[in-house]
Write a structure and sequence with these properties.
seven-stranded antiparallel beta sheet
Length: about 475
Amino acid sequence: MSRRYFDLNIQRVLEHWTVSEALREIIANALDEQALTNTAEPEIFETDSGSWHVRDFGRGLRYEHFTQNEDAEKLAKPNLVIGKFGVGLKDAMATFDRHRVTVVIRSKHSDITIDSVAKHGFDDILTLHAVVEDPADSEMVGTEFILSGLKREDVDTAKGFFLKYSGDVELEPTRYGSVLQREGKSARIYVNGLRVAEEPNFLFSYNITSLTKALRAALNRERSNVGRQAYSDRVKAILLACSSPSVADALAADLASFASGRNHDETTWLDVSLHACKVLNAHEKVVFVTADQVYMSAGLLARARNDGYRVVVVPETVAVKLPKLEDIDGNPLRDLNEYRVEWNQSFQFEFVDPAELTESERAVLALATPVLELVRVEAKRVREVLVSQTMRIDAHDDNEAAGVWDEETKRIIIKRDQLERPEQFVGTLLHEVAHACSGAPDVDEEFERALTRLLGRTGQAAAAK
């Protein structure tokens, strides 16, 4: 049996690494091999003797793998694999040796163990060597690492680095990666299934599968504690590519906490917040409002809820952008003003036949004739005055208007409750005549002048009587 010693050229490196982090490298290599060769899922198990085994079913590890600084095949398929540096395997061996974990590596190419041996030609310098021997099974499929001296908690911690073993639930996949349901105290950031960072104030966890140049550069030799600056652009891209209501709904709910400062970091990104509104608007009957509008337009919002709409509270910074945007289906985003417009467009008057009015109501309605006669010049465009049980929403106070001037039909329509008092009815009637003769909306200078003239003329007529 031949025995050869392969100098790994390492002594004490990454001394802060734990056994779990070393085992992470072995598991990562096994998962990479599965992805590259489309073979069976790796196995991780403990035998009765207490040793732990990590077994893949790929092409089998060769001693040459200990020489590579970068794996060309992994670099060519970055979206499939976790690792890219062959030195990760050597770092793992050094860590196992430091923690007195013995390692046996078996494949059809060779059996390999690790030992400290004097460097060739320098007997006073000991370095780690891979001890390469003929394979015990030349027909073996894949690679098997046999590790003695591990604790179960070491294995559980190592498996916890991987999305595959984490139990994290995928909410939505995109071409850039997946949004995952957050579990525990912190959200997790994975790159191709390997956890590289944690975020205590993220709403979701993420698995990034399409890497940017900056993220590739940040995936250091340790592949842990990667800074947010390296992956924030990809997290945003994932969220902006989402189209499911499950993700958008959670973001929208988080937006409601913006004013109190209890929202998560994703909803501080304006483009992400706006996209969530676009998705929700397309999938659900929603009305977007600000916290102030919740109180100032309570009546209109109660009407919206009765109509089956869900009221979604958003920050002012989001609300001001909504009128200019369309949802993912090309429809206008429904803020409070858009809801008011939609409601008025679908509104139908419930006209009341004068015969159905009470005697006192008919008496008040009869005042329309002498009042219009007093202002016949201004009221010349008014063809008739009608009474409706219901009315459109007033744009100023979000309540039902007391009356409207219908330019198309040249009619004044007055809400029935205005017939309760004569002065109330006459005031509403003159208000709508002012609209008819001025052609101007409320809070307009021309309208105000017309209304002042009408009130002055009717006041003079009443005084003369």
